[in-house]
Design brief:
Largest sheet: none
Order of helices and strands: HHHHHHHHH
Number of domains: 1
Strand content: under 5%
Length: 223
C-alpha cells in the first residue's frame, strides 16, 4: 500500500513538472495579482498594509482554482482514472496521494513565494512570517476541498464554470482565519488561535476529503 502511495506521488509530480505551463501559470498568476496592488494603490503604505493579508489569500485561492481542475481531468481523458478505480488498494488512500502531489507542485511554491510578496506589500517581518505559516497550514485545505469539487465535476463538460461555484464556499473559513492571523501579527496581537484553527481545518480535511473524493469519483463512474 505504501509503495502504491509513493508511486502515485512520484508519478503525478513528474508528469506535472514536465509540463512547465501547468504549474508555472498558477504561480505567475499568484505573483502578478499580488504585485499589481502596490502599483494601483500608490504610495499609501498604510492602506496597503491593511489589505495585504486579504490580497495574498485571495490570490492564493484564485491560483488554486486555476490548477485544481487539472487534478483529475487528464487522468479521466487518458483512462488512468479507471485504473485507479479498479485498483485493489483503498481508493481514498490513493486520492490522498494525488492530493498531496497536487499540493507539492502547486501549493508549496505559493508558500515559498510568500515571504518575497510580503516584502512587496511592505508587511512587517512578524506579519510576513505569519503569512508564510498561515499559507503552509492553509493551502493543503485548498487542495483537499478542491479535490472534492473536481471529483464531482470530472465527467461534466465545461467543469471550469461549475467548479469555482462548488468549492469557493468551502474556502471561506480558511480564508478568514488566514487573513486574521496575518492582520493580528501586523498589529502585534497573538496569532496562535487563528493558526490553531487553521491546523484543525487542515487535519480534518486530510481525514475526510480523500474519502469524499473517492465517493464522488465512484458515483460519477457509476452514472
Amino acid at each position: 500500500m505504501l509503495n502504491a502511495f509513493f508511486t502515485i506521488i512520484k508519478h503525478e509530480m513528474l508528469i506535472t513538472l514536465r509540463s512547465a505551463h501547468a504549474w508555472l501559470i498558477p504561480l505567475l498568476f499568484f505573483g502578478m495579482v499580488v504585485c499589481l496592488f502596490p502599483l494601483t494603490l500608490g504610495p499609501d503604505t498604510d492602506v496597503l498594509k491593511k489589505i495585504a493579508p486579504g490580497i495574498v489569500w485571495v490570490a492564493a485561492v484564485l491560483a488554486t482554482l486555476l490548477s485544481i481542475e487539472n487534478i483529475f481531468r487528464a487522468d479521466a481523458e487518458a483512462g488512468y482514472l479507471d485504473l485507479l478505480l479498479l485498483s485493489p488498494q483503498p481508493l481514498a488512500f490513493l486520492m490522498l496521494a494525488k492530493i498531496i502531489s497536487h499540493w507539492l507542485v502547486y501549493g508549496l511554491p505559493l508558500v515559498m513565494l510568500s515571504p518575497l510578496l510580503g516584502m512587496v506589500l511592505q508587511l512587517t517581518p512578524a506579519a510576513s512570517l505569519t503569512l508564510f505559516y498561515s499559507l503552509l497550514i492553509g493551502t493543503p485545505v485548498l487542495s483537499m476541498m478542491g479535490a472534492i469539487g473536481a471529483a464531482l465535476t470530472v465527467n461534466i463538460r465545461q467543469q471550469s464554470l461549475l467548479l469555482p461555484i462548488l468549492i469557493l464556499p468551502l474556502y471561506i473559513p480558511v480564508l478568514i482565519f488566514g487573513t486574521n492571523a496575518v492582520m493580528a501579527a501586523d498589529n502585534n496581537l497573538p496569532v496562535s488561535g487563528d493558526l490553531a484553527l487553521m491546523a484543525a481545518l487542515s487535519l480534518a480535511s486530510m481525514a475526510f476529503a480523500p474519502l469524499f473524493t473517492s465517493l464522488a469519483l465512484r458515483t460519477g463512474a457509476n452514472q
